[in-house]
């Protein structure tokens, strides 16, 4: 499959709509954390911390399965219709969560919503890779991922403002309505020419896109990307879940610990804004290795009690490198694999990475329970980042398919 030639206006619509879809994913994945404290205190729900954890975990399992399954589907039937379908599925099911009568129903709905939600990211990544302006593909990917953090912040702020006066169901409804409003724009503005090309070789690939991830020299990069993605998402979810408590165990007051979590995520957005541009200039392989390695350095440095603004500076730098390292992995996957299997490659990397998303909070919790969070929590997460760098080294030096660079060739003279 050769990627479609994309006019500048169409490329802008692809990036904007994919950013919006990812923002809605960020909102939906965070909204449960906003709602659970209310449900835990509602006697009609009889929700316990254990059942609340099950709701959260089963949603992530659905996201993992959705990512693994939907990537190959997009290779078979095309990106546009697959992206629209995933947005519709998770929007309708998220809206249904607002009417859930009890915890069992909520668990089922969160799992089913996760199936659609998990498919959004790999399809959006594939579309952006195929329609980004020439020589700016890595930046287009990392900038798109800022949408996730915008959605997460929106969920937090709306929860503060609305959940008290309007109740928890409004949070699910607010996430679903904008998503459904996007569907008409996706149907009219996303390019139609993203289905696999015809021809004997493409037909063979499309029949079993997952199998192609292990042929023609792709086996080693595929496994290496899976390991790197696992490590990257372990860091993202582990740090977001436990950084405040680890900092408290290191002697920082609660207010400072929460401020450091905010600082970490501010660094994440900065890293996404600059990481892709750096990768476009020095090469995505060099940038990804550097990002993981520097993330390891700054995480280990947090084991030292730093004075004043020093700890904020180190946490900011850790956020810059740790969070965007994972997205650079996605950017590299999107540039390396040919279009006929690109959705499968991104779906597999995202799906396997979700195992890291589940493992990260468990690792942090285990260290805290054992009384080892300070300093060994910092060293453990630093080791994970170092392993991410090693995994990327095993990808080797690669060349992206020419079709990705050609995809946005008309943009070369207008950007």
From TrEMBL:
It is found in: Cell membrane. SUPFAM superfamilies: MFS general substrate transporter. Gene3D superfamilies: MFS general substrate transporter like domains. Residues 14-400 form the Major facilitator superfamily (MFS) profile domain. InterPro entries: MFS, MFS_dom, MFS_trans_sf, Sugar_transporter_CS. It is a multi-pass membrane protein. The chain crosses the membrane at residues 12-40, 46-70, 82-101, 107-129, 141-164, 223-243, 255-275, 282-304, 310-333, 376-395. Keywords: Membrane, Transmembrane, Transmembrane helix. Its main location: membrane. The keyword Transmembrane applies. PANTHER family: CARBOXYLIC ACID TRANSPORTER PROTEIN HOMOLOG. This is Aromatic acid/H+ symport family MFS transporter.
């Amino acid at each position: 499959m050769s990627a479609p030639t994309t006019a500048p206006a169409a490329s802008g619509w692809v990036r904007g709509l994919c950013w919006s879809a990812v923002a809605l994913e960020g909102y939906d994945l965070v909204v449960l954390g906003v709602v659970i404290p209310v449900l835990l205190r509602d006697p009609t729900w009889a929700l316990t911390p254990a059942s609340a954890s099950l709701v959260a975990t089963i949603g992530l399992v659905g996201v993992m399965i959705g990512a693994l399954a939907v990537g190959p589907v997009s290779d078979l039937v095309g990106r546009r219709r697959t992206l629209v379908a995933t947005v519709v599925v998770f929007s309708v099911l998220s809206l249904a969560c607002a009417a859930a009568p009890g915890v069992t129903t909520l668990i089922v709905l969160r799992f089913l919503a996760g199936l659609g939600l998990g498919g959004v990211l790999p399809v959006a990544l594939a579309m952006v890779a195929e329609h980004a302006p020439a020589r700016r593909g890595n930046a287009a990917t990392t900038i798109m991922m800022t949408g996730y953090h915008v959605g997460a912040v929106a969920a937090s702020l709306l929860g503060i403002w609305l959940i008290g006066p309007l109740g928890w169901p409004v949070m699910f409804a607010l996430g679903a309505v904008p998503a459904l409003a996007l569907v008409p724009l996706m149907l009219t503005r996303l390019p139609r020419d993203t289905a696999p090309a015809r021809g004997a070789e493409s037909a063979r690939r499309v029949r079993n896109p997952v199998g192609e991830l292990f042929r023609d020299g792709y086996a080693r990069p595929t496994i290496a990307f899976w390991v790197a993605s696992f490590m990257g998402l372990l860091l993202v979810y582990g740090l977001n879940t436990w950084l405040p408590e680890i900092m408290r165990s290191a002697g920082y007051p609660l207010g400072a610990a929460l401020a450091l979590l905010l600082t970490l995520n501010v660094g994440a957005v900065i890293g996404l804004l600059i990481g892709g541009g750096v990768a476009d200039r020095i090469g995505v392989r060099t940038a990804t290795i550097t990002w993981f390695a520097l993330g390891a350095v700054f995480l280990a440095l947090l084991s030292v009690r730093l004075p004043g603004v020093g700890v904020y500076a180190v946490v900011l730098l850790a956020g810059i490198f740790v969070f965007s390292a994972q997205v650079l992995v996605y950017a590299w996957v999107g540039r390396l694999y040919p279009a006929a299997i690109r959705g499968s490659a991104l779906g597999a990397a995202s799906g396997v990475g979700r195992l890291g998303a589940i493992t990260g909070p468990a690792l942090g919790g285990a260290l805290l329970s054992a009384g080892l969070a300070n300093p060994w929590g910092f060293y453990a997460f630093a080791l994970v980042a170092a392993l991410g760098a090693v995994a990327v080294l095993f990808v080797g030096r690669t060349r992206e398919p020419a079709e990705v660079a050609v995809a946005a060739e008309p943009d070369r003279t207008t950007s």
